[in-house]
Amino acid sequence: MMASATLKPRHEQRILNGHLWIYQGNVARLDGEPSPGDIVDVFAADGEFLGRGYYNPHSQIAIRLLTRVKEPVDRSFFLRRIQRARAWRARVMPDATSYRLIYSEGDLLPGLIVDRYEDVLVVQFLTLGMDARREIIVEALVEAESPRAVYERSDVPSRRYEGLELRQGLLWGELPEQPMVIRENGLSFEIDVTGGQKTGYFLDQKENRRSLAPFVPGARVLDVFCHNGAFAVHALRYGAREVLGVDSSEQAVQSARRNAALNGYTKSAWFVEANAFDFLREMDRSSERFDVVILDPPAFAKSKAHFEPARRGYKEVNLRGLKLLHPGGFLVTCSCSHHMPADEFYRLVLEAANDARRPLRLVESRGQAKDHPILTGVPESAYLKCLIFQVLE
Ligand code: SAH
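Above: inputs. Below: predicted complex with S-adenosyl-L-homocysteine.
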């Protein structure tokens, strides 16, 4: 018989509203002695069936739901989920050849990330329950996607909370020589799935990069936290006169330089390796000014506990960025931290604008690309904010 978990009275509402995580503290009783990673049926205190998920006694999150019906969690289950995820991308980004194929909770596969880079799949097993099913998941991915290679990048520190080691390596097929070239919005980017940040590229900004188009023709653009230059190269494609990118990672800066050249921009793209905070301060002291400033920092708030220092960090970066804009210029400012809520982020940018005495007009409020779907019942699945402002003349 399948093991089961019964929740404490009145602990089911969050789950009924669409959340997939059941904390240790929600569970009143476990029956059937499930082993770590086993599938368990979950019931409300009154006996109502809530769903089926995998169990991990060593994580704060005891169970993550995979389904709300009584179906076997086998290879064909994963195949159906992958096909459904693929169909969504085909609908919302039919021309994309590189995209996030599986976004964990957003695709009802908590703990699994799969990025498709042309014909290479890069997989992250973030939880014990997913890690335990790695073989059937890879089989299902190969069947659904016919990739050239499946490469694992489970070198994610949060795996330790699940009692898992960090892992990385080829799982299937033959990996093309790295770096390899991917296409996005008609442009080419060199990425390295074996050694780049995360899985090699930030796919979640794909639609925000496209949104630069109306604001950059003829502009001098500053791309802060530029990584491999994806925003900068888009700005050039959309008509920017010149871009300057800055990132503290030497590897990122070198790859940004190669990406500008790869797309034919040799005389209008400049990239420097520097700490963004120091760099922005220096620019402010010099009389360098820009028509567009892009700010895409790493997640300053990695948890709730880091909220206050993170808020100060975001505010400082935005203040400094705003000061470098010509009147009439545009600020494109992002936060990829779930722990920085959208309304709070908006507020802190306005505070920065007030401090800098740069009144703003809100042009667009954006989020993560549609290959990172947000489940309303799982607030944690929403993380990226991207606001576009114009500085009033
Ligand atoms: N804009 C990029 C993604 C940025 S990710 C894109 O569109 O793909 C955040 C980047 O910030 C990383 O490349 C990281 O190397 C860089 N970074 C982190 N801390 C930094 C700092 N203090 N100064 C400058 N860059 C930093």
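Residues 197, 202, 205, 225-227, 230-231, 247-249, 252, 275-276, 296-298 surround S-adenosyl-L-homocysteine (CB under 6 Å).
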